[in-house]
Each structure stands twice: as C-alpha cells, then as structure tokens.
Design brief:
single chain, alpha/beta, Four Helix Bundle (Hemerythrin (Met), subunit A), Rossmann fold, 434 Repressor (Amino-terminal Domain), 8-stranded mixed sheet, 8 strands
Length: 526
C-alpha cells in the first residue's frame, strides 16, 4: 500500500541523515520534497499543510540544527508527527456496554461491509470468546442477506433468519431483540450501501441508528478510493455519527493517501484494516507500526505476533530436537516452506523487517516470491518417501519423473537440492552449538544464498542480537510490545537462536522460530 511513499520518503530522509550538519535551507528543501511526496500519495492538502508546518516548527530549531546528528533528529520528528497524524494510540472496537453491544456497519456499496462484518464476528468469537449474532439489513442488493448467511456458516457465526418483506428498521429491531433474548454479547448490523452518497441512504442510516441505538458505528471505506474516501467519512460522520473507521484493501497497490488522511480529517480512529480476502485477514490498526513501515523501519512486533499465531509450538520443539541430532530432510524443508507461507510468504516477512525496502529490487530480480515456494513444495510432494528422506538417491531418471509430476524441470530440482544441502549444513552447525534453533533464520539465509543475495544471506543472522541492544532500544521495543498486547505462547523452541531468554523486554518471552540470532534483517547494526 505505501511502497511508493516509502521509497520517496526514504530517499529524502536518507539524504538528510547522510550529512554532517544541516542548515535551515536544507531542512526547508527536504520538507518541500516531503510535501510533494505526500500529495502524490493522495494525502489531503489540508493534512499535508498541517503536517509539514508542525515538522518545520520543530525541525528548524537550534536544538536540532546544532545536535550531534541533526539528520536523524529530523527523521525522528517526521516519524513522531506521522504517528500523531495516524492517531497516536491505536484503538480497538469498544465492547464496554451492556450486552448485547450493537455494532452498526455503514459505507458505500462495494466497500466490503458484508465481508468485514463476518471478519469482525469471527475475530470477536475466536479471540475474545464472544457470542455474536449477525444481521443483514440490506434489502436492496440482490442476495445480500443470503451472502451474509453463507459467510456466517463459513465462520460458524449465527445469522438472523431472513424474513422476506421486512424493512431495514424492522430487521434492526428484531436483531436487537433476538440478541437480548438469546444471550448474545454482540450484534453486528450489516446495513445497505449505495454507489454514492444520497439523501435516502442517509435518512435510512439515521432511522436504523435511532431504532437500534448502536454502541459502535463503524464506517467501512475502500482505501483505494483516495480522497473520495475522506469526503465519504466526513459526510457519514456529519449525518449519522461515526465512532471508528475500517479500511479495506490495505494489501492493494494504492498510494495510501486515504489511510493517512481520514483520521486527521475526521478525528475518528482507524480501528481495523483489511489486508486480504480471507476471513482472518483483518488486523488492528497500530499508528506507530504503520509509521515505522512507511519510513522503512520495519515492524518487528507484528512479525513476532505473526510467528506466535502461525507456528505450531509442538512441531517447532520436535524439529529443534531433530535438528540437534543433525537431521534435516526434504519433509522438514517442506514444513518450513509451509510455515513461511502461513506468515505471509517471503514478501510478508520481508516487509516487516527493518531496511528491507531498500533491497526490494534486488529481491524481486532474484525471483524470491511466493510462487517459488509453491513450486518447491510441488517438487518435494512429487518425490517418494524414500527420496524425501534420502535425497542422495536422486539420479537422472528419478529427477525426470519428479519434474513431470511437479510441472518443473531438472534445473529447478537441482536448485532445490542445492538449497537443501546448504540449509542442512546451516541447521547442523546451529544444532552443534546447542542452540537448537533459528530454523526460519536458516531457511531465509539459505534461500537468499541460493538466489545469490549475499548481503541478504548475511543479514539473516546479522541484525542486532537483542541481548546486545542498549537499554533505550530494549525499552522502545518493550513499549511497542506492551502497547500491542503481545502474548506469546510458551515453549516455542527452535525459533530463537540468539535470543537468550526470549525477547528481552517482553517479559521473558520464549524463543521464537525464525527470529534467531537476533532479528533477521539487512545487516548488523552496532
């Protein structure tokens, strides 16, 4: 979403940090470029003006210009103001009200209200143990009510039975009553939309609000619509009263202006963001993490969360024990590839690592993408059990058979076998040192080495070991984790390598697979 903005701001701010001293003219010239970059990213003009004025007021002071590293001070000011523009503290859906808590979903047609309603219901059910009832109030769009019913079956969330001929207000009253009588914690009302804002839509929304008295009114907006989304938010807030925003399609290739503008223009917090089509592709909106990503600082806390959610602790423990004995066969490699796919693939993991934005072109040129993972898994699945356990028996005739079965060629099989040998050696070396871990670190190092990305391969073990980080860095990481409410499952061996005692500052969290040897990244920092 923020790739082009990240590139522009990264170049501008790198020019500042590369200088020994700054003048007011240097700062002003850089801020002109920042202003242009934000406008090109479709950020609202009034928001850009306010942002650059605040940065200038702080950045041209004597304290900055005479500091030891003025360029880095300016970067910090830009980062802090970006966080402030996005909302400072992240907010989640407020459920502090007498049950059932009514959540009303509003927005234009096609913004993703129905799918988002089901995603929120699934999230509240699975993560918070809430009993949720969904109801479709969309009587105009063909099969809208049936769509929500099917999504309810898919997510195992109860939906209000459809009664033909009822008006949206009548359905809202029936849903609230059913929620109260059925002992539900939350009732989600999926309202109708239009292709554009009109008076009948606003009147209907106001009538539903008056009938259901929702505790939360969430505006669902497509983040790809740019400035129209900002005007939409303002209109709905003035007429209906919005308590929070949900931005969909944040995984798209839009410029990100809506996400940066809507909070600043409306004063309403972005509570959730949709990052994919799957029912679990919904994330809380953390302003600081988004700012970190935009400025190319990575998002280690989100990477830790993904690892904690997607990695099977028992399987990781068994793998660590197996690796300590020096064993790493092709079945183990396939398991590691699948785990990386669960965490968002190479792109998803790289995007959260500090400094990886600068290596994007190099990674793309090397062909490191998720299709490669699928191809490699297909090759392994085309082998017999004996071949997976002992790759040395793979001679020419066997490779021909495997190539036909996986739709690849002998060259692709040879690349996979070479990568496996490199990784097996790496894993054996790790196991020999008694670390029992760094599986994904070794995995990504092996991949990078295989693709000829020497710098990246070195970086897999080259980010700072947390045990050697200074107290200020540890405290900053601790605050991020506490703010995010990170709770890591116990006993995730095999992920930790160089993280003694787990992540310092995270309450002695366990070692995490794939974040071993300190955090994977683009090179060691001192």
């Amino acid at each position: 979403m923020f790739e082009s903005l990240q590139e522009r701001l990264g170049t501008i701010l790198n020019n500042l940090t590369g200088r020994g001293a700054l003048s007011e003219a240097d700062v002003s010239a850089a801020l002109r470029e920042v202003r242009r970059a934000l406008l090109e990213a479709d950020v609202s003009l009034e928001v850009v003006r306010s942002f650059t004025d605040r940065v200038r007021a702080k950045a041209v002071g004597a304290e900055v210009l005479k500091s030891i590293k003025p360029g880095q001070m300016v970067v910090k000011i830009v980062h802090d103001e970006l966080v402030e523009m996005l909302g400072a503290e992240g907010e989640t859906i407020d459920l502090n009200a007498p049950a059932p808590v009514v959540i009303m979903m509003v927005g234009l047609q096609g913004s993703g209200k129905t799918t988002t309603s089901a995603k929120i219901a699934k999230r509240l059910t699975e993560r918070q143990g809430k009993k949720v009832l969904m109801a479709s109030l969309d009587t105009r769009r063909p099969a809208a009510q049936e769509q929500l019913r099917q999504l309810g079956e898919q997510t195992k969330v109860v939906t209000l039975p459809i009664i033909a001929g009822q008006s949206p207000v009548e359905i809202a009253r029936r849903a609230e009553q059913a929620g109260r009588l059925g002992g539900y914690d939350v009732v989600i009302l999926d309202t109708a939309g239009r292709t554009h804002i009109d008076e009948p839509l606003m009147v209907e929304m106001a009538d539903i609000r008056n009938a259901a008295k929702p505790h939360e009114i969430l505006l669902v907006a497509d983040s790809l619509t740019g400035q129209d989304a900002v005007n939409l938010a303002r209109s709905f807030d003035e007429r209906v009263g919005v308590t929070g925003l949900v931005l969909t399609r944040m995984d798209g290739d839009g410029r990100g202006g809506a996400a940066l503008s809507m909070r600043a223009v409306t004063g309403k917090p972005v509570k959730l963001i949709g990052v994919g089509e799957k029912m679990d592709a919904l994330e809380e909106f953390h302003p600081k993490r988004i700012a970190d990503r935009i400025l190319g600082m990575g998002d280690i806390v989100s990477l830790v969360e993904k690892a904690a959610e997607n990695i099977d602790a028992e399987k990781a423990a068994a793998m660590a024990k197996k690796m300590q004995s020096g064993k790493f066969d092709l079945d183990d490699l396939a398991d590691q590839l699948r785990q990386m796919q669960k965490m968002g693939g190479m792109g998803g993991i790289m995007g959260l690592m500090p400094g990886m934005g600068k290596m994007k072109d190099q990674i793309a040129a090397a062909g490191l993408d998720d299709r490669m993972f699928g191809q490699q898994i297909a090759i392994i699945q085309s082998m017999t059990k004996a071949e997976r356990a002992n790759p040395d028996i793979l001679k020419h005739s066997r490779k021909q058979r495997i190539a036909k079965g996986s739709g690849t060629d002998a060259a692709a099989i040879n690349k996979l076998l070479k990568m496996h040998r490199q990784m097996a050696d790496m894993m054996k070396a790790m196991g020999g040192k008694g670390k029992g871990g760094g599986m994904m670190r070794g995995m990504m190092g092996g991949l990078a080495s295989k693709m000829g990305l020497g710098g990246l391969a070195g970086g897999m073990g080259g980010m700072p070991d947390l045990s050697k980080m200074d107290p200020k860095q540890l405290e900053a990481l601790k605050k991020q984790a506490e703010a995010a409410g990170v709770k890591l499952p116990g006993g995730l061996p095999g992920m930790g390598g160089g993280m003694p005692g787990g992540l310092p500052g995270l309450g002695g969290a366990p070692r995490l697979p794939g974040l071993g040897g300190g955090l994977p990244g683009p090179g060691r920092k001192k």
